[in-house]
Structure formats: C-alpha cells, structure tokens
Amino acid sequence: MIDKVCEDDDKQLECSEKETSKPFSCSACSKTFFFKQSLRTHMTKHVGGKPFSCSTCGKTFAQKISMESHVRTHSGEKPFVCLLCDKTFSQSPHLESHMRTHNGEKALVCSLCNKTFYQRGHLESHMRTHTGEKPFLCSLCGKTFAQKAHLRSHARTHDGEKPFACSVCGSTFSRKETVKSHMIIHTGEKPFSCSLCEKTFFFKQNWRGHLESHVRTHTGEKPFSCSICGGSYAHRSSLAAHMQTHD
C-alpha cells in the first residue's frame, strides 16, 4: 500500500512520504516497477523481441542504443570525456555518475530509508533489500537472487568454473573475494586486531576463533539461543552441538 503516490515521475524519489510498493505496472503481464523507465524497457519484451544484433558476437538487444553501447565493449571506444579530469567512459550514464564524484552530489534517494546513490541501477538494486525481491533465477536449481552478480557467482557452483586464480600458488576459485582471503595464507597478514587485548586475526568474521568470535570472550555476549530450552551460546557452532542433545 502507498501512503502517498507522487504524481510527478521526476519528483518521485524526493517524495517525503514513504512508499511500500511499485507504482508503475505493465499492462501486459502486471509486473510492477519502481521507475517509469524500467517499465518502458520491460515493455519491449512484449512488442517485438530483440531486433538489434551485435555483428561481432551475435548478442541481440531490444533497443538500438543498448546494442550500440554493447558494441563499445568490443571496440574499447570511450567517447564520453570528463571535462574536469579527462577520464573517459564508454557510456553516457557512467560519465554522469562520475561527474557527481567531483561535486559530491548524490541525486538519487531511497524513498524508504533516504540512502543516496550516484546511479539509478544501484538504487534499484538497493530497493530490493527493502522489498525482498529476488528476480534473478538459476535455471538449473531454481534458486533466486536479488543481484545478477550473485546469480553469476552461484552458477559456477553448477559448472565448476573457477576463473579467479592465485598469482602465488595457482589455486583457482569461483569468487574474487575468496582469492583475496586466500592470499592472506601467503602473506601471513593478520589485519584484524582485538581492541581489548591486541590479539590479531586473519579474518574479521565467519570462522570460530576469529575476531568477532574472539571479542565475545571479553564481553560475555551469547547471541545464539536455543529455541527449545532457551540456553544461549557465544558461538553458532556451540549452539549446533547443543541442539544435538535435543534430538
């Protein structure tokens, strides 16, 4: 339900009233969108397919401007130039986004939490953290994701692709973030230190014995509780072990 609908599309992001739905609806399939431009782009799926094709790789597009933008990924052409620092871009929206880094402007505002963004795509992605929408579907297992990048990363669990390699030992990984974590093994770096006892750790979180888990030995915090008997534990693994006593 919408407390107040902003009639002016340009002012929609600045509306002071909080929105909890998507005001732009497709008349063909009833799918809804936050932005009118997103609806226009979606409508091309209903009225003619993808008539524009890339002569280099054969990829097809619903809009000519999208095809022309894609072609520049092959040619490397970057015709859009920043007049302040001479940095070049392949797409006009990227230049517009870059220009805001010079003047500090963040023109796009989330109507639910007021967080600001340089790019409309980033705002649309952020909005899904409020709605819980996961529009990107894995065709192999049916799992859905809020971000396209997360779907691409997940797809590698099916095909076994590991495109990210360690420059030291050659080990390969499916995610770039995993390579960064792996590199610590070679460097011996322990960038995370406890502010209470100055003990250092490889990782900030995720594994028992690392920083966030260690800090609980000082604070006594036990955030993991048993839903059956109410017992609380400092570590998730301790709770898991405890739960077996109820089986």
From TrEMBL:
InterPro entries according to UniProt: Znf_C2H2_sf, Znf_C2H2_type
Keywords associated with the record: DNA-binding, Metal-binding, Nucleus, Repeat, Transcription, Transcription regulation, Zinc, Zinc-finger
Gene Ontology CC annotations of this record: nucleus
SMART domains for the chain: ZnF_C2H2
Region forming the signal peptide: none
Pfam families: zf-C2H2, zf-C2H2_6, zf-met
Molecular-function annotations in GO: DNA-binding transcription factor activity, RNA polymerase II-specific; RNA polymerase II transcription regulatory region sequence-specific DNA binding; zinc ion binding
Keyword Transcription regulation assigned: yes
Subcellular location: Nucleus
Residue span, C2H2-type domain: 24-51, 52-79, 80-107, 108-135, 136-163, 164-191, 192-223, 224-247
Source organism, top-level taxon: Eukaryota
Its biological purpose: May be involved in transcriptional regulation.
Family from the record: Belongs to the krueppel C2H2-type zinc-finger protein family.
Protein name: Gastrula zinc finger protein XlCGF57.1-like
